[in-house]
Amino acid sequence: MPYPEELHEQAREIMARYPEGRQRSALLPMLHLVQSHDGYVSPDGIAFCSEKIGITKAQVAAVSTFYTMYKREPTGDFLVSVCTNTLCDVMGGQKVYDTLRDYLGVDHDETTSDGKITLEHAECLAACDYAPVMTVNYEYYDKTDPESALSTVQELQNGERPAPTRGARLCTLKELSKQLAGWGEDRPEALADNALGDSTLAGARMAADHGITAPQIDPGTPLVNKENS
Questions:
Q1: For residue 193, how far is the Cα from the chain centroid?
Q2: CA 44 to CA 29: how far, in whole Å?
Q3: How confident is the model at residue 88, as a pLDDT?
Q4: Residue 149: what pLDDT?
Q5: In 3-state terms, what secondary structure has residue 139?
Q6: What's the first-to-final CA gap in the chain, in angstroms?
Q7: In angstroms, rounded to a whole number, what is the distance separating the alpha carbons of residues 184 and 201?
Q8: In angstroms, what CA-CA distances link 2 with 8, 32, 38, 53, 128?
């Protein structure tokens, strides 16, 4: 599938960020770029990156399969990820997943027939203090339960974009991929959203209340311990 000239221009912009001889480093944002167009890293996207950067398709494919944010199969506008790791599972994460699976009629890594929603088990979403956690396109919906998760998914099906518990405003997977390729959020109001959560800040507040700070770095300290080198 031929790509539009705009995508070729964007690829050249990405390549220009890297010095001569180091342009293989452009592969990660380039993969996000083709995903922003196709909705996943397609075979055509693999070939596009290979040609632009001057490496083999096998090398591009190897990188695209290593990182989970690159999708190798067509993915919905909204990737709904439910953590079912130990803590989230104990707090009800599996029940959340099962509710969405039964409602949507799809299982792990499957997409609804209208192409809107892809459901996946998530091994860990790094937010145990908000368990059980669900994300939509990597934005957090904290302390979820079957009812709230189902409500969020139904809003997505109705064309709405329910506000995450914290963090940026929701965007589609293609829109997110373009941001990760290096193009900023084009909704000014979204830049004012809060990315902090009370549970995350609890430790910092406790340290401040008790006057606890991390040791200061002595700039004269050698970076290498010669006795152990």
A1: 17
A2: 16
A3: 95
A4: 98
A5: strand
A6: 54
A7: 27
A8: 10, 17, 12, 17, 44
Q: CB–CB of 138/43 below 8 Å?
A: no
pLDDT score recorded for residue 225: 64
pTM of structure: 0.84
Q: Tell me what percent of the residues of the chain surpass a pLDDT of 90.
A: 74
**151-160 residues labelled b (16+ CB within 10 A) or e (exposed):** ebbeebeeee
Angstrom distance (rounded) from CA 58 to CA 61: 5
Task: Flag whether pLDDT at 229 surpasses 60.
Answer: no
Residue 3 pLDDT greater than 60, yes or no? yes
**Residue 116 pLDDT class (50, 70, 90 cuts):** very high
Mode of pairing for the β-strands spanning 78-83 and 134-136: antiparallel
Residue 68, classified by CB atoms within 10 Å of its CB into exposed (0-12), middle (13-18) or buried (19+), is: exposed
DSSP 8-state symbol, 222? -
